[in-house]
Design brief:
Elements: E1 3-10, H1 12-16, H2 20-30, E2 33-40, H3 44-50, H4 60-67, E3 72-80, H5 82-90, H6 103-107, E4 116-118, H7 122-132
Antiparallel strand pairs: 1-3, 1-4, 2-3
């Protein structure tokens, strides 16, 4: 198993609902190491860079409004197969369909306000970590 890094966001709904600790605990309990962590408010340009693969989609404007709507937590987590491990902990995109026991399955009923983002591949994690934490060694 290769040690990997992945970019994770606790989206503005998670911060507003006071779920930072509950969500972060799941990653810590799993054994992932927090390499970087920062609370930020992002603007539209940053949202467009982060969600470059989605900017042309019909549902992107409301997603951009949501992701820029308040503070979020950006972090880099590290551990064996971290990309897959965090995607699994987060659960399916739609909170209604997400497996009970996952972050989205336990805390979300929405396919937009679904609390967390995590890189979906090593290519994505490299791009996203460079975008959010450009000075991270
Ligand atoms: O986040 P994930 O990789 O699971 O899903 P995605 O398909 O890459 O979509 C990115 C994000 O867009 C989701 O996490 C939702 O917050 C949002 N989304 C949305 O607002 N409306 C949709 N119909 C689908 C996704
Ligand atoms: Mg995605």
């Amino acid at each position: 198993m290769t040690v990997e890094r992945t970019l994770v966001l606790i989206k503005p709904d998670g911060v507003r609902r006071g779920l930072i600790g509950a969500i972060l605990s799941r990653y810590e309990n799993k054994g992932l190491r927090t390499v970087a962590l920062d609370q930020r408010v992002v603007d539209s340009a940053m949202a467009d860079r982060h969600y470059a693969e989605h900017v042309e989609k019909a549902w992107y404007p409301p997603l951009r409004a949501f992701i820029t709507s308040g503070p979020l937590i950006a972090m880099v987590l590290e551990g064996p197969s971290a990309v897959e491990a965090v995607r699994h902990l987060n659960g399916a995109t739609d909170g209604v369909a997400a497996e009970p026991g996952s972050v989205r399955g336990d805390y979300s009923l929405s396919n937009r306000e679904n609390l967390v983002h995590a890189s979906d591949s090593l290519e994505s994690s490299a791009r996203e970590i460079a975008l959010w934490f450009p000075t991270l060694p």
